[in-house]
Amino acid sequence: MSNNRVEKCTICFMSVNGIDGFFRHIRQVHGNDRQFEAPSSLLPNVDDININTNDENERQQSLYEYEKYDPLEEIKNFYIKMLLKVREGHVLPGNIMKTMSLSLSCLIQTYSYYLLSKLDINVDNAISCNFNDDIEKTLFQISRNEDSFISSCQLYFKFVKPKELQLRNGNKAYYIPIRDEERKIISQFNGQDILYHYRNAEISRQRHVLNNKDNCLLLQLYSDDLGVVNPLMGKNATHKLTTFYFSIDDLPARLSSSLNSVYLLLLYYTKDFQDENNRRIIFAQLNQDLRNLEDDGLILPGDTVPTYFTISTLCTDNLAAHELGGFICAFNSGHCCRYCLTHHRDMKNIYKESQTLIRTAASHDLQVKQIQNVHADKSMYGISEISVLSNLPSFHPITSLPPDIMHDILEGIMPKLTSCLLHTIVSTRLCSAVQICQRINTFAYGANDKRNRPPVFKEKDIFDKRIPGKAMEKYCLFINLPFILLDFIGKVPYWFLYELLRQIWDILYSDYPRKSWLSALEQSVQEFLQLFQTIFPEQFIPKFHFLLHAARNTSKYGPLKRQMNLRYEAKHHLLKQIANRCNNFINLPCTVSRRVQLRQCYELMDENTFKSYGISGKFRERRTTSFKKIIQNALHDDHLFTYGEFSQCVKWVLVDNVKYKIGDFFVFYLLGGEEIPLFVEIKYIIRIEKEWRFIVHCYDTVIFKENLWCYEIKPSDVNLVLNKNEFLTHKAEDCYRINNEYFIHVPYRLTLVE
């Protein structure tokens, strides 16, 4: 007799799942309220009298599991999950839990009363009342306070509680313990021309732990300060916090681009860092965990051998890098470059890296020993003290602090050059300041640049030689500047500086730069620095000198795009949002660190967190025969296509954290030795056999226009059906149509990686 046949209750005619389900239903719903008759289908037939031993064992096992089944545990699990989704998913204050528990309790009581009334069962039934009371106690026990909720999350969802570090001045810091197929692709580029990853760069090849341990993963750290303002006190009550994040450096790009792969590591008040004893306490636990991870490793679920972890780099801005590395923190005097020993007064006159004395790990260690013996020599070497992170395994100030092209270029060199060019245009009366501002403010930015369009530009900004806005807003203005000044682009003085900087940026921002490009990069940087210093000497800042080491740093660290702070700084938004909505500023590091961990618990609760495949717009069905004949011919070449069937069409889809939408332009292929890009425009996005297909229209590349720094393209007669893996780029670019001509810019140099 099968235990899995679906039967119906003889009292309420509700479907039940076999014998076990029937008994469970009778016990939980009806109890001893009234007599019931077992359905005839559950009575043994003549053919079922001889039950074999295996069926009987299965039945006994099912009955045993049923006896162990506790519905309250399932309700508790579901309620905690719901609290995480509502509270952390929408970043709501913690006291929302009591409101939810009270509302749910009332809802359950009302539902039970209504259900029992409909079933003609006594509403004062003892079993029902006791069960409702048990549910109510469970809900209120979880929601009683923050500690009870966190304890439940630790029990059911492996919540990692921040560890409290008591500092000497009475304040507290909070540390999140970190102990508790992409590499095969990376290894293919060892010894080749392409710098695919940090592992293919010079420093990585010198790391003993990476050379001796095959199953070793890289951890990238990030540190930065953020300010949180108490809205009741104003700017005078700004709480300045220092954060440390980490991410796994070996993750593929489709995962590492998500903020879900960035984890909070350390959080404390910035003022507490000034005390040497506090610094020792703050980093002691981090040092111990990292050393254990590097020496002992972790045996991950499903593995039999340990996986080791080590630091690759510590990403941060220049000020924090100098502070953590032990260098002087003044950039307007002395030896303020952490890559070489050039003095600030000589930076304006040095255009070649060969004219500088490069810092090395060995020379730095000797200099640190010297200043410990003779404190007066600090200014001679630009070193103030031994690095506060010197005890961390695999960390060294010379090899572990890469440049950040976001702060150096996006917020430094690019706006400086943009402001100088705009001021020159006005001063030469090529265009008035009012007209320049009007052009910038009314320019029709592309669909992908709209969210980063610069703020309202004012005449005062031009005369003061300043570019307002955030890093991406300044970058958006710089990239689109040729189209804004298109009418007189050929008459703009010193426009060759713009072209030189675009040439430099194309290599620095490349996903996979080639080693053969580095000599050209060094030459371009030398030419740019010499010309800029000659034309605009008063606008020089140390970030121009830092650019002098770009080629060497690319060779040392691999693609500098992977060392940018941009992705990490986006994580600050969550911390600020939590602080403002919780409205608790007494022990802010405690509040924020706990809520961030609860948020992570909510994100990891769903096993599909990192599987962003198939999030799309609204589906609409369309018969494939309704497409144009040229589209149908392209579809016929796809093996999933069946003539005459319906296709599901959408306007946009998110696949592997890349958003594709109709009208977007992507690079499809690089042609010839010069690697000329061929572009396609997405016309339709369809879903066939649970696979996404992109019907694209191909464009021919006509010429590269250096003054606009973009490609001129023209439509062809070719339509193709592509999948996501056939696009060469993972970011849509904007195409501008001007006088029936199509122009598209790609702000980075492309490489065909096979």
Structure description:
Residues 9-30 form the C2H2-type domain. This is C2H2-type domain-containing protein. By secondary structure, the chain is an alpha+beta fold. The chain has four domains: 69-157, no CATH class; 163-186 and 194-327 and 394-402 and 570-604, no CATH class; 413-540, no CATH class; 613-744, Bromo adjacent homology (BAH) domain (SH3 type barrels, Roll). Strands 10, 11, 14, 15, 16, 17, 18 and 19 form an eight-stranded antiparallel beta sheet that branches. It has a six-stranded mixed beta sheet with strand order 3-4-7-6-5-8, sandwiched between helices. The longest helix has 23 residues, at 96-118.
Short summary:
It contains 25 helices and 19 strands. It has 754 residues and is an alpha+beta fold. It has 4 domains: 89 residues, no CATH class; 202 residues, no CATH class; 128 residues, no CATH class; 132 residues, SH3 type barrels, CATH 2.30.30.490.
